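I have been asked to look over a protein record a colleague put together. The record follows directly below this note.
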Amino acid sequence: MMDYGLPLAWATIIGFGVMMYVILDGFDLGIGILFLFAKKPEHKDIMMNTIVPVWDGNETWLVLGGSALFAAFPKAYAIILPALYFPIIIFLFGLILRGISFEFRFKVKKWQWIWDFSFAFGAIIATFMQGIILGRFVEGFPLLAGKYIDPTYTWFTPFSIMTGIALICGYALLGATWLIIKVEGELQEWCRITAFWLGASVLFFIIIVSIWTPLAQPAIAERWFSWPNIIYLSPVPIYTFILVVTFYWSLIKKHEYLPFISSIGLFILSYLGLGISLWPYIVPRVMTIWEAASPPETQIFVMTGVIFLIPIILIYTIHAYWVFRGKVKYKDSYYE
C-alpha cells in the first residue's frame, strides 16, 4: 500500500505545483503578451506595476514541480528532459529576458523601448515554448529500451505549434482579466474588450484540442467516449460550457473578479481533462507513475521536506497578494 500510495501522492504534488505555476505565472506572462498592444506609455507602466511585486514569487512553483519530478520520478525525468532540452532552454531564456526587462525598464528611460520589446518578446517566447512542451508531451516520445532515441526536432509538430499558439491566447486572457481587477478607466475598458475576443479564441482552441486529440490518440478516444466513461466524464465539458457563459455574462455586466475566476476555471478544467486523458502515465503510453517512481525511501525522505515547504510557499504567496491588493495607479511604482 505504501509503494502504491507514495507515487500517487507525488503525482498529486507535482500536478498541484504545475497548476499553480500555470495560473500564477500565466497571468503575468499574459500581461507581457499584451504589453506592446497597450495604447499609451502610462498604460504600460501600470500594467507592469500590477505584477512587479509578485512575478518572481510566481515562478517558485515551476522550481518545485521540476525538482519534485527529478526526486520522485527519475526515470520519467531521464526521458522527458532529453526529449525537450531545446524548447526548455528557449523557455528559460524567455523567462530570463523578461526578468531582466523588469529591472532595466524603469531605470533606462532613453532605451525604454528596447526593454518594452524584450519584456513582451520574453513573455511570448516563454509561453509559446510552454505550449510546444505541452503538445509534445501529449503526443508522446519515440523510445527504445526506455530511452529517448530521436535527436531531431520532433517536438516541432503541427499539434505542438497549435498548443503553443493556444497557450499564448490563454495566458493573454488571464493577463487581461487580471488587469480588469487591478486597473481603472480607459485601460480597464480596453482589457474588457480584449478579454472578450481572447475568450472566443480560447474556446476555439479548446474545441480544436478536444477534437484533434482523440482523433490522433485512439487510447484517449477510448478513455472519453467508451461506455460508461462518457457518462462519468460528461461533467467536464458541461462545466466548461457553464464557465464560458459565466465569463461572458460577467464581462457584459462589468464584474471585476468573476472574469478572472472564470478564466482560471477554464484552465483548471482543461488541465483536468488532460489528466484524465493521460492517466496513469507520466510518460504518455509508455511509463506509469508507479513504473517511473524512485525507491520508497527516497520518496519518503524528500516528502518530509515538501510537507513543510508547500505551506510556507502558500503562506508567503497569499501574504504578498494581500499586501499588494487593490488598484494600481499611474504613479505607483515599486522601483522608485
In short: The mean pLDDT is 84.
